[in-house]
Automatic annotation (TrEMBL):
Keywords: Signal. Coiled coil: none annotated. It comes from Sphaerotilus natans subsp. natans DSM 6575. This is Lytic murein transglycosylase B. Gene3D superfamilies: 1.10.530.10, Bacterial muramidase. The keyword Signal applies. It comes from the Bacteria.
Length: 352
């Protein structure tokens, strides 16, 4: 079968009639060219099926023949032509908005039992889990409207020029998408997500779904689109696997040293916790009383505020762990601030 792969790619559209798993794909009038007949795609399929014998090369080839290049995906993955200066206050305001806060409290109260169970099992506070789901998709309201196979094929095989090439990363995610669809018996053509291929309420990339998603409702399958229990458990498991420590604060207040060599030395490791409290003090930083008593490693985290002076926090290992979900100190701080806000408002709501 595999020796005839190239020929099958060239005529893959005809194979739709004999591939039931793909039968629900919709025909679009005058569609743009698919990915059949391309040697790089043929090579990808050969490598994919050699690594994953459970996959059928004809089904994979048929799916890729039906995938469509998405110009909007190529545009969205590019950095802004004139990027604005980083501004923590502006960034924060995008995520601590009325809708997320209101719906976050409701989501927490509606799903209190499963959130408590996840916190007991993995040690991740319910507030942090709820906050991440809110930041990512506003509790499932914005999960993305692109067919995942279209988005990932576009970025795997036609990654736009003008920024560092990440096509290898997206080829790996496209591979993971096929493995995920086969494992969970999902029609790969029906899976939808963001322009970057992130999926479901927690916006897991396909490889993260395979590695970290859990069947927390114990119904025999993982569903990150509709099962709140699976979403909650998977977010908690992801953070736990990446080093979340039960009952550890995420950060402490800190006054940095004046601009100069000491501040530069403390900022050099970026957000990786690398200093003891005494190290920060020796460099002229002033920690809060709680921070001064902390015995673990800390990072001096800078959050720029445009033309205004930057903000600073001393991040712990749990701050670092949140950045494994999205590699940004601004993201981590937004998650933390939203979690704090939700905790305060839920307490008020519970007392009514």
């Amino acid at each position: 079968m595999r020796r005839r792969l190239t020929a099958r790619l060239a005529t893959a559209a005809a194979a739709l009639a004999v591939a039931p798993v793909l039968a629900t794909a919709q025909t679009v009038p005058s569609p743009p060219p698919g990915y059949e007949g391309r040697e790089d795609v043929s090579a990808f399929v050969r490598q994919l099926v050699s690594r994953h014998p459970q996959l059928d090369d004809e089904v994979v080839a048929t799916a890729l023949a039906d995938a469509r290049y998405q110009p909007q995906v190529a545009r969205l993955i590019m950095p802004a032509a004139s990027p604005a200066a980083k501004n923590w206050k502006v960034y924060r305001s995008r995520f601590l908005d009325t809708l997320r806060v209101r719906e976050g409290v409701k989501f927490w109260r509606d799903n209190e039992a499963v959130l408590a169970a996840a916190e007991a099992r993995w040690g991740v506070p319910a507030a942090v889990i709820v906050s991440i789901i809110g930041v990512e998709t506003i509790y499932g309201r914005q999960t993305g409207g692109f067919r995942a196979i279209d988005a990932l094929s576009t970025l795997a095989f036609d990654f736009p020029r003008g920024r560092s090439d990440r096509s290898a990363f997206f080829r790996d995610e496209l591979e993971a998408l096929f493995v995920l669809a086969a494992r969970d018996r999902i029609n790969v053509m029906t899976i939808r997500g963001s322009y970057a291929g992130a999926l479901g309420m927690p916006q897991f990339m396909p490889s993260s779904w395979l590695k970290f998603a859990v069947d927390f409702d114990e119904d025999g399958r993982v569903d990150l689109h509709r099962s709140v229990a699976d979403v909650v458990g998977s977010v908690a498991n992801f953070l736990s696997v990446h080093g979340w420590q039960r009952d550890l604060p995420t950060h402490f207040d800190v006054l940095p040293p004046p601009e100069g060599p000491d501040r530069e030395a403390l900022l050099a490791p970026d957000i990786l916790p690398s200093f003891k409290a005494a190290d920060l003090a020796a460099r002229g930083a002033t920690l809060s009383p709680a921070g001064q008593q902390f015995t673990g490693q800390l990072a001096l985290v800078e959050l720029r505020n445009g033309v205004e002076p930057p903000s600073f926090v001393a991040g712990t290992g749990n701050f670092w762990t949140i950045t494994r979900y999205n590699w940004s100190a601004y993201y981590a701080m937004a998650v933390i601030d939203l979690a704090d806000t939700l905790s305060a408002l839920k307490l008020v709501a519970d007392q009514r």
